[in-house]
UniProtKB/TrEMBL annotation, chain A:
InterPro entries reported in the protein's UniProt record: BFD-like_2Fe2S-bd_dom, BFD-like_2Fe2S-bd_dom_sf, FAD/NAD-bd_sf, FAD/NAD-binding_dom, FAD/NAD-linked_Rdtase_dimer_sf, NasD-like, NiRdtase/SiRdtase_haem-b_fer, Nit/Sulf_reduc_fer-like_dom_sf
GO terms (BP aspect): nitrate assimilation
Family stated for the protein in its record: Belongs to the nitrite and sulfite reductase 4Fe-4S domain family.
Domain BFD-like [2Fe-2S]-binding span(s) in chain numbering: 419-466, 481-530
Protein known as: Nitrite reductase large subunit
Residues where [4Fe-4S] cluster binds: 638, 644, 678, 682
GO molecular function: 2 iron, 2 sulfur cluster binding; 4 iron, 4 sulfur cluster binding; flavin adenine dinucleotide binding; heme binding; metal ion binding; NADP binding; nitrite reductase activity
Pathway: Nitrogen metabolism; nitrate reduction (assimilation)
UniProt keyword Hydrolase, yes or no: no
The NADH-rubredoxin oxidoreductase C-terminal domain, residue ranges: 315-383
Automatic annotation (TrEMBL), chain B:
CDD domains on file: Rieske_NirD_small_Bacillus
Biological processes per GO annotation: methylation; nitrate assimilation
Cross-referenced InterPro entries: Rieske-like_NirD, Rieske_2Fe-2S, Rieske_2Fe-2S_sf
PROSITE patterns: RIESKE
Name this polypeptide is given: tRNA-(Guanine-N1)-methyltransferase
Gene Ontology molecular-function annotations: 2 iron, 2 sulfur cluster binding; metal ion binding; methyltransferase activity; nitrite reductase [NAD(P)H] activity
Coiled coil feature spans: none
Entry keyword set: 2Fe-2S, Iron, Iron-sulfur, Metal-binding, Methyltransferase, Nitrate assimilation, Oxidoreductase, Transferase
Superkingdom classification of source: Bacteria
Residue ranges occupied by any Rieske domain in the UniProt entry: 5-100
């Protein structure tokens, strides 16, 4: 006798179960198929090609009316099941029909998660799950603006599909890079670049605040930072939740999904479940491969055979033309793992393998995914790769090995990338000069002037020569930045500028970094270069800073910190001194010392107390003295005309003004200034990075002094007549230093490389250039001229405290 | 026997960062890598007891803030020419939470 099987949901998983059943034992069941959607089974994952116009809906129907009729499946489409009575073994459909079952199969899939932002119920706010959603999006042609919240698989397919139809699409993603669950930063960077080239705007680390509407229809999305993105349609693709409501209401055990055992049986022996609605061994599912395995097992269980569902490794691809990415296996959690990284900036290729005990356990690839199946096989079969380790990353075809190309980054530069900033010479002009017979650096300089001025691009010019001439040109050995790259600091700085690299992931990829995320040598340098070159675009990365700059205090040998508040120009007040004394008492500061920089150091403060002591000092009007930073430290002054019988100008006042203009700025190394009121030079201005000596006729500005490991006297840059001009010249020199020097070169070292004349030509002789430098300095200061102490007190004082205190637990 | 206890959310530690946990036998530094792996090591560099939690995290290593020794987060061993090792403790992430094995910390306290 045929038994009655009722299937709830005509989805990708239940469709497979029915297929197996009618093939393997057509007489076992009378099948009734309910579906809330007004249609039968179709290939949901192909909605993306339908959206982009590469396929039509009829192409993706998996079972049509004829098929259901042929296999005697009773279809109740557009009708959902409202209730289940497990004792009577009946289901009630939405219009009240009651039907009996012998076996019941859940295939209810999942519901898209809608973030409950204000305005989420406006018309024009949709998810991306079914044909109706797809049709809404297909209506978005040119002149329509769309915002997609969510930069995962689904969101990006939605974005790419609508962009293909001409819509103006913005993706808003909360995490720092796209598809963070499948991709690492480097691959996420390449993906973002490809989507941007398709005309899609991508906003990462962007937090949605409110959906705006008018007359009940969506008009835009506002973000945390105040940005408003106008839109005609808003698609939320932020995740799915297993659809368990019906199962739960009928008393079947559910967790995150409907609990099933290895046979796909729920807590009720006559009820099975498959697909995204289930939870198996703590896992829930969002890709079809495991659902098909479940379907196979469920069909066998329904036929009284024994089979078991086993979870397997999964791999992901994105169905967006031109974005070839692949990700499989595991990147998180676990000891003893190792990375192999390969980057080819010229082809936009990135590959990374994660290896544990000579077995590949994870792979991310971007750009060239031809070998992805081979790598996936290695992961799935747990192949021992010990013998091919050295060449593994090149894939199966290269199992003989090609060495990495140290010139890859320069080879990848487009012809219009500017190599020599001073003279505006692009790669193409250098290549042309080479073709025209210039075969060494001198000849290139003579013909194009490239590298002839400050000379910091010499390395790149040589690499262009080497790349164009092959073995005929031998590059003089230059010191690379660190073990992560073949490029020097100067090369990397030029790459950042000429290629407009605005994130660390971009630098790692386009400069062919050999590691996944740099090291303690390159990361602080890159962080500085990026924030100096792109103050508005780049987000400072505290994790790439040495502890002193991350915690805004100087670490001591015993792990405590020193705290130095600013004393503008060395001037203080009784109130400030009292506040310092009070703070020293309150926080048990063991040492209070007058520094060599005309201010007071509180030494030996506990890390946990930092926000509290800063709060007190802030309350008395004091801010960070940046005694820890590669940035503006002190501006020493002497008493000048205020009190001194020899003073020629107000040196104290000018020092304070300079300090107030320059404080907060980050520089390649520390930056110390001094202003002396007369050539007796009591503020020691002539051994500072920038020194001002006041004279009757004005202000002598000199640069390049030091009194540390090297003792140097400054060299005269220019004498000017007014305070205002002094301040501008100082800002311009500082900005030129910030834009051009190697990280950890003080001004005198930088000056030795580029020459005082080169600096003079920009900040003294060329008034336009001086003004431009001042403007760029001011732009950067609009972001950085603020007190980091106050910001940390307000926003992240928690991070200074221990994460947990287990002293009690552990002692139990 | 292990005895995992929930310390904090994964997000409480920044990527490529660390936070410190106080225990009866001293401070333990809990690190989160760029790939969201979690490691726990004694917060004392084998060189001169520098606070490793304040170092720069790169790959699966941390650079001590005091004199730049590079310590493997997996083994606690000093890398390169430097010699020394710091104790590591079992740690893992589950459902976005950081778990530490308290048994191990307690055993250490007794030993
Ligand atoms: C506190 C202070 C000594 C004092 O008690 O007076 C000091 C303390 C340190 N100096 Fe200094 N320097 C201090 C004035 C100086 C001066 C004098 C000056 O600024 O007028 C110099 C020589 C002038 C110069 O810089 O050219 C000076 C030249 C150095 C150097 C050598 C720099 C060089 O380029 O050769 C270093 C090492 C470095 O920066 O790499 C250094 C580094 C250090 C560090 C930050 C070492 C470190 O990395 O931990 C010391 C921090 C101690 C601590 O734990 O707080 N300190 N240091 C002075 C703070 C001034 C302030 O108010 O901010
Ligand atoms: C646009 C898009 C692209 C995708 N791309 C990929 C991809 O490239 N690769 C991949 O592996 N996966 C992809 N997926 C995921 C994949 O489609 C799902 O994993 C799969 O469809 C889930 O199958 P299912 O049978 O569990 O549920 P579904 O296919 O969602 O089917 C469930 C059905 O049950 C119905 N239902 C729910 N409750 C009731 C009720 N009470 N009564 C009656 N009917 C009910 C629903 O209406 C629905 O039709 C994609 C998904 C989408 C939306
Ligand atoms: S001279 Fe400066 S760096 Fe050296 S011990 Fe003194 S404070 Fe420290
Ligand atoms: S204490 Fe860590 S390197 Fe010296």
């Amino acid at each position: 006798m045929r038994q009655k099987l009722i299937v709830i949901g005509a989805g990708m998983a239940s469709g497979r179960v029915i297929e197996h059943l009618v093939e393997q034992d057509p007489d076992a069941y009378d099948i009734t198929l309910f579906n809330a959607e007004p249609r039968g089974n179709y290939n949901r994952i192909m909605l993306s090609p339908v959206l982009s116009g590469e396929k039509t809906y009829s192409d993706i129907v998996t079972h049509d009316d004829t098929w259901y009729a042929e296999h005697a499946v009773t279809c109740r489409f557009g009708e959902h099941i409202a209730d289940i009575d497990r004792v009577a073994k009946t289901v009630t459909s939405e219009n009240g029909d009651v039907l009996g079952y012998d076996k019941l199969l859940f295939g209810t899939g999942s519901n898209p998660f809608m973030i409950p932002l204000p305005g989420h119920d406006l018309d024009g706010v949709i998810a991306y799950r079914d044909l109706e959603d797809t049709e809404r999006m297909m209506a978005m042609g040119p002149e329509k603006k769309v915002v997609v919240i969510g930069g995962g698989l689904l969101g990006l397919e939605a974005a790419a599909g609508m962009a293909a139809r001409g819509a103006d699409v913005t993706v808003v993603h909360i995490m720092g890079h796209l598809m963070e669950r499948q991709l690492d930063e480097a691959a996420g960077y390449l993906l973002r670049k490809a989507l941007t080239e398709k005309g899609i705007t991508v906003k990462c680390s962007a937090n949605s605040k409110e959906i705006l509407g008018e007359n009940g229809h969506v008009t835009g999305l506002s973000l945390d930072d105040g940005t408003v993105l106008p839109c005609d349609l808003l698609v939320m693709a932020v995740g799915i939740r297993p659809n368990v409501a019906l199962a739960q209401a009928s008393g079947i055990a559910v967790g995150r999904g409907i609990h099933v055992d290895d046979q796909m049986i729920t807590s009720d022996a006559d009820v099975l479940a498959v697909g995204e609605c289930v939870e198996h061994n703590g896992a829930v599912f969002g890709l079809v491969a495991p659902l098909y395995d479940q379907a196979k097992v469920a069909a066998q269980t329904l036929q009284g055979q024994t089979a078991s569902f086993v979870q397997k490794e999964l791999s992901t691809k994105l169905k967006v033309t031109g974005c070839d990415l692949f990700s499989a296996g595991d990147f998180a959690d676990g000891e003893g793992r190792e990375d192999i990284v390969f980057r080819d900036p010229a082809r936009g290729v990135y590959r990374r393998l994660v290896i544990e005990n000579n077995v590949v356990i994870g792979a991310v690839m971007y750009g060239d995914t031809a070998d992805s199946n081979w790598f996936f096989g290695l992961i799935r079969d747990k192949t021992d790769i010990a013998d091919m380790r050295d060449t593994l990353i090149f894939g199966p075809a290269f199992q003989g090995g090609t060495p990495l190309d140290p010139l890859a980054a320069v080879a990848a530069l487009p012809r219009d990338a500017e190599i020599c900033g001073c003279n505006g010479i692009c790669k193409g002009q250098i290549e042309d000069a080479i073709s025209a017979g210039a075969t060494d650096l001198g000849a290139i300089r003579a013909v194009t002037k490239a590298s002839g001025s400050c000379g910091t691009c010499t390395g790149l010019v040589e690499q262009v020569l080497a790349h164009s001439l092959g073995d005929e040109f031998v590059i003089p050995a230059a010191q690379p930045m660190c073990g992560c790259t073949d490029l020097t600091h100067e090369d990397v700085r030029r790459m950042i500028k000429s290629q407009r690299l605005t994130t660390m992931a971009a630098v790692w990829q386009e400069c062919a970094w050999k590691t996944t995320c740099g090291c303690h040598v390159c990361r602080p340098a890159l962080n500085f270069y990026l924030l100096a070159d792109w103050p508005l675009e780049y987000q400072d990365d505290p994790q790439s800073r040495f502890v002193n700059e991350r915690k805004h205090a100087n670490i001591q040998k015993d792990g405590t910190f020193s705290v130095v508040p600013r004393m503008w120009g060395g001037i203080t007040t009784p109130d400030e001194l009292r506040a310092i004394a009070d703070a020293a008492d309150k926080f048990g500061v063991p040492t209070v010392k007058v520094t060599g920089g005309q201010r007071i150091d509180l030494l030996g403060v506990r890390g946990e107390d930092l926000p509290d002591i800063w709060r007190d000092l802030n309350a008395a009007g004091m801010v960070s003295g940046h005694a820890y930073s590669k940035g503006l430290r002190t501006v020493k002054t002497c008493v000048g005309t205020d009190h001194c019988r020899f003073g020629t100008q107000d040196s104290t006042g000018l020092g304070i003004k300079l300090e107030k203009e320059l404080w907060g700025s980050w520089t390649p190394h520390k930056l110390k200034l001094a202003v002396s009121g007369c050539p007796r030079n009591c503020a020691e201005a002539t051994c500072k990075d920038i020194g001002v000596v006041c004279v009757d006729s004005g202000y002598q500005i000199s640069i390049g002094g030091a009194a540390g490991m090297d003792v140097r006297e400054t060299e005269l840059l220019v004498q000017v007549a007014t305070e205002e001009e002094t301040i501008n010249v100082v800002k311009a020199v500082t900005q030129a230093y910030r834009e051009n020097a190697k990280y950890l070169d003080r001004i005198y070292k930088w000056m030795n490389k580029v020459g005082l004349d080169w600096i003079k030509s920009r900040v003294v002789d060329d008034l336009n250039e001086r003004a431009a430098l001042v403007a760029r300095f001011e732009l950067s200061q609009s972001i950085y001229r603020k007190d980091p102490w106050a910001e940390h007190v307000a926003r992240q004082s928690d991070t200074y405290r221990p994460l947990a205190n287990l002293s009690l637990e552990a002692a139990e | 026997m292990s005895n995992w206890i929930d310390i904090a959310a994964l997000q409480d530690i920044p990527q490529r960062g660390a936070r410190m946990v106080k225990t009866a036998h001293g401070c333990v530094a809990v690190f989160r890598t760029g790939e969201d792996e979690i490691y726990a090591l004694d917060n004392a560099c084998p060189h001169k007891a520098g606070p490793l939690a304040e170092g720069i995290v790169h790959g699966k290593a941390v650079t001590c803030p005091l004199h730049n020794w590079v310590i493997s987060l997996e083994t606690g061993l000093a890398q390169g020419a430097d010699e020394g090792q710091v104790a590591t403790h079992p740690a893992r992430v589950e459902g976005g939470r950081i778990l530490l094995d308290i048994t191990c910390l307690r055993a250490k306290a007794v030993a």
